[in-house]
Q: What sequence folds into this?
């Protein structure tokens, strides 16, 4: 592919991410990788076509692993939409959870993995307040009476 082809593809991916589709920065990452390959190809640094595709793959993976999540947190400012409303709600513990331990709890009719961040053991049926949500795990503490 000519160098300008990579630039066009990169710009199209960035435009799609910004203007039309919310894909969680995946298209933006691929767009930046394509732009970098285009720049490298324009400077004669990429070699044959298979080298361009290899560089694109390596850049895409590196950017996905190293940049996407911090960028997403910075731009969106916190947890993904939908989960912040769980903080402060009360979950019902399904099984005993020791302090610092992990177990199950019911919240909004769904079974969640719960991490006890409090200092007391939570028994089955206990009510626990949600302190934080991270990676589909709720951090809970015993509800104050």
A:
């Amino acid at each position: 592919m000519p160098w300008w082809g990579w630039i066009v593809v990169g710009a199209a991916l960035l435009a799609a991410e910004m203007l039309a589709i919310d894909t969680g920065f995946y298209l933006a990452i691929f767009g930046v990788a394509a732009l970098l390959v285009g720049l490298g190809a324009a400077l004669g640094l990429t070699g044959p076509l298979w080298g361009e595709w290899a560089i694109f793959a390596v850049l895409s993976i590196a950017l996905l692993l190293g940049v996407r999540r911090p960028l997403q947190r910075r731009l969106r400012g916190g947890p993904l939409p939908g989960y912040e409303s769980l903080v402060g709600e009360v979950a019902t513990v399904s099984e005993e959870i020791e302090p610092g331990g992990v177990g199950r709890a019911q919240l909004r009719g769904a079974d969640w993995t719960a991490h006890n961040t409090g200092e007391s053991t939570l028994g089955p049926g206990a009510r626990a307040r949600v302190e934080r949500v991270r990676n589909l795990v709720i951090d809970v503490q015993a509800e104050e009476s």
Notes: Strands lie at 90-93, 102-107, 110-116, 127-134, 137-142. The mean pLDDT is 88.
